[in-house]
Design goal:
Type Iii Antifreeze Protein Isoform Hplc 12; two-stranded antiparallel sheet; six-stranded antiparallel sheet; 384 residues; alpha+beta; single chain; 7 helices; rod-shaped
């Protein structure tokens, strides 16, 4: 190899070393920066979610995990739900969850179907549904698990008496076991101008009485105070454990014979009807007139006796009594109009009505001479 060639190679090597040194000095050959891995996504609450609330997909959203949450995520990854809204569909919150908080499995009730009505009822109890407007159910704010009193407000007209209105306690200490015709605990605004459906737990006789009275006036639900509700829950739990349930209350005139009524109703020996409403409302029909025929020789005279002091079997009808929703009274919850509902013997019967007529009556009209007679305001009901 020529000396000139070796010299050129030596010079080229020096230039390469010089270029390399200059490149390093200028940072052209620095170590490439490592890419930071993306943080995982997690499911979080989009709004405050309260305990025992059925979670809807609109209640949650997905976001990236923060650096502060990464350590817990790596150590408790099994507690984190898939980052998708459907992961909490029809799940119930086991605790209050703040907006923006990560939703973990421990924040939710174990996944399961809702408890059926049969499992919510005590032995010997029955479920009855009532549809009540907001103004007659504490604004519709009564919740599942609360205890209420059921009252009936009705108008009445007694033959040869003055029509009137009364509110009476129909069933006391009744537990709400479902709301909105749903087994799920729904947390959503109540619809305006729409009745709210409540499912109540009552003994068989009171459940039948509520069912019978629902179209004969206005039903109202009145929630009980917290102290009373706790006492009733404690007594309910004790009854569930012991299996012993009693409905009678010796201190109550109405409930002292409740156990006998329930037993007779369960046997099919007792029916619920107009006499029950008369008893609860403390109303009674006037004694029927008694007619006697006096025969003296060839002269015959008919004498009619009317009053309480007689022991003669009545020969004539005692008249009728009517119940219905209050009309045009200005009282809260009164309707402007409704159809009448009447109960009488089947067509073709030659016998007269034996007891009473119940139904919704129209309001009296002062301009009509017969307006005080509520029987004249009753019309047949239409099937819905």
């Amino acid at each position: 190899m020529r000396a000139s060639t070796v010299f050129m190679l030596f010079v080229a090597g020096l230039m390469g070393l010089g270029a390399t040194a200059a490149g390093k000095a200028m940072g052209l050959f620095g170590t490439p920066a490592k890419e930071t891995p993306a943080l995982p996504q997690v499911l979080v609450a989009a709004k405050a979610i309260f305990k025992d609330t059925l979670i809807e997909t609109s209640f949650v959203t997905v976001r990236d995990l923060s650096e502060a949450e990464l350590a817990d995520y790596n150590s408790n990854r099994s507690q984190y739900l898939p980052p998708m809204a459907d992961a909490v569909f029809q799940r119930i919150a086991a605790k209050n969850i703040e907006a923006g908080q990560v939703i973990k499995r421990s924040d939710l009730v174990d996944i399961n179907r809702p408890e059926p009505l049969a499992e919510r009822l005590l032995p010997q109890m029955r479920a009855v549904n009532v549809s009540v407007k907001k103004e007659r159910s504490a604004g519709g704010l009564i919740q599942t698990g609360e205890w209420v009193d059921v009252t009936l407000t009705t108008s009445f007209s007694i033959p040869e008496g003055v029509p009137g209105n009364r509110t009476v306690l129909l069933a006391r200490n009744v537990r709400v076991i479902a709301k909105r015709n749903s087994l799920w605990p729904v947390f959503r605004p109540l619809p305006e101008d729409q009745p709210i459906d409540f499912t109540l737990e009552a003994n068989p006789y009171r459940a039948a009485l509520i069912e019978f009275a629902r179209d004969r006036g206005f039903l109202s639900l009145t929630p009980l105070p917290e102290s009373r509700q706790k006492a009733l829950e404690k007594a309910r739990d004790e009854s569930l454990k012991s299996g012993k349930i009693t409905f009678s209350d010796p201190e109550s005139k109405e409930l002292k014979d409740e156990d006998e009524r329930v037993a007779a109703f369960n046997r099919g020996d007792l029916t619920v009807g107009e006499p029950d409403l008369l008893r609860i409302l403390s109303l009674s029909l006037p004694k029927p007139p008694v007619s006697l025929e006096l025969i003296t020789g060839q002269e015959r005279e008919k004498h009619t006796f009317k009053g309480d002091k007689h022991d003669v079997t009545p020969l004539a009808s005692s008249g009728s009594i009517s119940f219905g929703k209050i009309k045009g009274t200005g009282l809260p919850g009164s309707d402007s109009e409704s159809e009448a509902v009447t109960f009488s013997k089947p067509e073709g019967s030659s016998e007269s009505s034996s007891g009473a007529k119940f139904g919704m009556t129209k309001p009296p009209r002062p301009s009509t001479p017969s307006s005080n007679n509520m029987k004249s305001a009753m019309i047949p009901s239409k099937k819905s």
